[in-house]
Amino acid sequence: MALKSTLPAMHDVELAALAAGGRRDAFGELVRRHGSAVRGLLRRMGAQAATADDIAQDAFLAAFEQITDFRGDGTFQAWVKRIAARLYVRHWRKAAHVDLLAETPEPDDAPRHDGEDGDAHRAAMRIDLDEALRSLAEPERLCVSLCYGGGLSHAEAAEALNTPLGTVKSHVKRGLDKLRRRLAPPEGDGGAERRVHG
Amino acid sequence: MAEFEARLDKMFAEPPAFEDAGDFAGHVQSKLNRNWATRRLVIGALGGIGGLIGVGQIVSSGVVGHMKSLAQGAPGFASIDIRHWHGHLNAGFSPATSGAVWLGLAAVGIALALALSRLIEDL
């Protein structure tokens, strides 16, 4: 039996195997590793902080119940994110937001960039993404986050949202177009990721 | 397009930093422990109820009386022919009560096994 002190050094798949055998402390280590990623995804999908945390907790509890389904084909984090994304969609649909999928208000999408460098670049990247996502219409934000953050295919997102595949695709396309404009490096920045808009 | 999508994937993969990350993990862990304890309690209670039903069935089926009569008719319990004893036991039970007794005994066995496993886990 693995000691508690050795858990932090273990791979996610090993921890999941221990959790499948009833080791709740091993699952706790997985929560410590991936809790922030799941909470972050839910907030990026549009959930308020308290709701995001509640759903993230439910997602981890559901993951523990289904831990034997995790085969290690993908990453544990991606697996839990998918569970969390589906739970949030269920919550979102219960809150009668489904009609919003049909209408897409056009928010102000003037490009912004903070121009951070070095070690601060990753933090800036997160802030950029979070700000850019906030500028999207709710259905666009949800569809983009489901497909890129939650790892769902367009078809899976359409099924989860109980909406036509074409609607999801158009929300994703519009969302991506806006994000591309928002996240584009400013003129004269000359970064490696700079690209010409089509 | 693909370049931007790859960049977006990378951005989504960057988790935000939460100051209360430890608290969140603690809440999940305590919920897990609470659910686990509740589940064990429910299973234990169901096993206990099953065991009580089984014991009640054994007592009401008159097996104690059969045992007494067997003990009186034999020089010693140890010398009782087990096939003879088994025949008496079966003869005293109607098919319906016999089935109930065995079910009850099985429930008692399960309850004991659960109690034992819980004891081992707690140790």
Query: DSSP helix count of chain B?
Result: 5
Count of discrete alpha- or pi-helical segments spanning 4 or more residues of chain A: 8
Question: Which pair of chains forms the biggest interface, and how many residues does each contribute?
Answer: A-B, 37 and 27 residues
Q: Runs of chain B with pLDDT <50, length 5+? A: none
CATH homolog superfamily of the largest domain in chain A? Winged helix-like DNA-binding domain superfamily/Winged helix DNA-binding domain
Give the end-to-end Cα distance of chain B, rounded to a whole number of Å.
58 Å
Give me the count of strands of chain B: 0
What oligomeric state best describes the polypeptide chains here?
heterodimer
Order of helical and strand elements of chain B: HHHHH
Radius of gyration of chain A (Å) = 19 Å
Q: Give a short account of the largest sheet of chain A.
A: none
Number of domains of chain A: 2
Shape, per Cα inertia axes of chain B: rod-shaped
Task: Provide the helix percentage of chain B.
Answer: over 70%
Low-confidence stretches of chain A: 107-116, 190-198
Tell me the CATH architecture of the largest domain in chain A. Answer: Orthogonal Bundle
CATH class wording of the largest domain in chain A: Mainly Alpha
Shape of chain A: globular
Note the main attributes of this structure.
heterodimer; A: 198 residues; mainly alpha; Rna Polymerase Sigma Factor, Chain: A; Arc Repressor Mutant, subunit A; 2 domains; globular; disordered C terminus; B: 123 residues; 5 helices; 82% helix; 0% strand; rod-shaped
What does this molecule look like?
The complex is a heterodimer of chains A (198) and B (123). By secondary structure, chain A is mainly alpha-helical. Chain A folds into two domains: 7-95, Rna Polymerase Sigma Factor, Chain: A (Orthogonal Bundle), CATH 1.10.1740.10; 98-198, Winged helix-like DNA-binding domain superfamily/Winged helix DNA-binding domain (Arc Repressor Mutant, subunit A), CATH 1.10.10.10. Helix content of chain A is 61%, strand content 0%. Chain A is globular, with a radius of gyration of 19 Å. Chain B is mainly alpha-helical and 123 residues long. Chain B has a domain at 45-123. In chain B, helix 2 (21-60) runs antiparallel to helix 5 and helix 3 packs antiparallel against helix 4. The longest helix of chain B has 40 residues, at 21-60. The termini of chain B are far apart. The chains are: A mainly alpha (198), B mainly alpha (123). At the A-B interface, helix 2, helix 3, helix 5, helix 6 and helix 8 of A face helix 1 and helix 2 of B.
